[in-house]
Automatic annotation (TrEMBL):
InterPro entries: FN3_sf (IPR036116), GH (IPR017853), Glyco_hydro_25 (IPR002053), Ig-like_fold (IPR013783). Gene3D superfamilies: Glycosidases, Immunoglobulins. This is Lyzozyme M1 (1,4-beta-N-acetylmuramidase). Transmembrane segments: none annotated. Belongs to the glycosyl hydrolase 25 family.
């Protein structure tokens, strides 16, 4: 049966519309993909990730995970010196959600330091916020503030060194530095920046930085399900794996060597002279006294390392007194104490 011309036209129109809808669908899928993998993927890129802060608002991390568009996240914990009003308000939520869902994550702190004192405080800021967290990616020091252009390369290097050394003094070994290509080439040139991994920002189709780097932030215009705002996109370069931190065990500081009481002798009508053995390398001595052998001791004197005896007065005739002595040594601003000497007694 022959088809009418109008029927043929209708079929043709339907076919054209169908093809157009298919092309639009393909384009939308391609466009969404390009928003994530929008740059020229380096041959040695192994994963893609995002970095977020409170600027992205409250994130639905389950949607992020289900999208399979982010293999990891670098989350801002805060900015500037160690004050609670400079904590990122979504840090605890974001990090807790990543841990709950098994999303690998690291952190960064946006620096505003123009002195080493501020850099030390910024490190302490990070340490405070990392308590109880289980990072699987590095801790980054974000050095990109405009005021860096007013500082010399040496000053910037000292600031970075202070932050990084302070972090390591707390046992956080997996630290790195974030900045843009221009600053890495012109300002962040001190030798310290060669000692740590670099996360480099160059929002372009290709990273042209000639130095070494282990992560490249290539865009600020990513679109990821679960995140209402545009998000930064990154490539992880290489197969490196780091834990977020590995707190060092507290160093065991040896006690100073103990002393011994050499003699107790009556002195005058109401006093006793305590003579003890001098010990080299200590900062001083402390003498304790009681009227009971096993309890009730109170410190009666703190003496310099130059002293080797002490006379305790105002004692009661016919009463028995017990004495013990210990040495002390100042280490890193804190005193360490030896065990006490063997108790000696005398009746006044």
């Amino acid at each position: 049966m022959k088809m009418k011309r109008s029927e043929k036209l209708g079929m043709f129109t339907g076919l054209v519309v169908g093809v157009l809808l298919l092309l639009i669908s393909v384009f939308m899928i391609f466009q969404t993909t390009c928003k994530v993998w929008g740059a020229e993927k380096p041959a040695n890129a192994t994963q893609q990730g995002i970095d977020v802060s409170s600027h992205q608002g409250k994130i639905d991390w389950e949607q992020v995970k289900n999208s399979a568009l982010a293999d990891y996240a670098i989350i801002r914990c805060g900015y500037g010196v160690n004050q609670t009003d400079k904590d990122d308000k979504y840090w605890d939520y974001n990090s807790s959600e990543c841990e709950r869902l098994g999303i690998p994550y690291g952190t960064y702190l946006y620096s505003g330091a123009d002195t080493t004192a501020k850099a030390k405080s910024e490190a302490e800021h990070v340490v405070r916020l990392l308590q109880g967290k289980n990072l699987t990616y590095p801790i980054y020091y974000d050095m990109e503030a405009d005021m860096l252009n007013q500082l010399s390369s040496t000053q910037i290097g000292n600031i970075a060194k202070t932050f990084l050394n302070t972090m390591e003094s707390y046992g956080y070994k997996n630290v790195a530095v974030y900045s843009n290509k221009y600053l890495f080439e012109t300002k962040l040139t001190a030798t310290v920046f060669s000692d740590y991994p670099k996360w480099i920002a160059q929002h372009s189709n290709k990273c042209t930085y000639q130095g070494s780097y282990h992560m490249w932030q290539y865009s600020t215009q990513g679109v990821i399900p679960g995140i209402s705002e545009k998000v930064d996109l990154n490539y992880k370069i290489g197969n490196w794996t780091y834990a977020g931190y590995s707190p060092a065990k507290k160093p065991v500081v040896a006690k100073p060597k103990a002393t011994t009481i050499k003699s107790l002798k009556k002195s005058g009508k109401k006093a006793v002279k305590i003579t003890y053995k001098k010990v080299s390398g200590v900062s001083g001595y402390q003498i304790y006294m009681s009227t009971k052998k096993k309890s009730g001791y109170k410190k009666i004197a703190t003496l310099s390392s130059k002293k080797s005896s002490y006379t305790k007065g105002k004692l009661k005739k016919g009463k028995k007194y017990y004495f013990k002595v210990r040495t002390m040594k100042k280490v890193s601003g804190k005193y360490r104490y030896s065990s006490f000497s063997k108790v000696r007694s005398i009746k006044r």
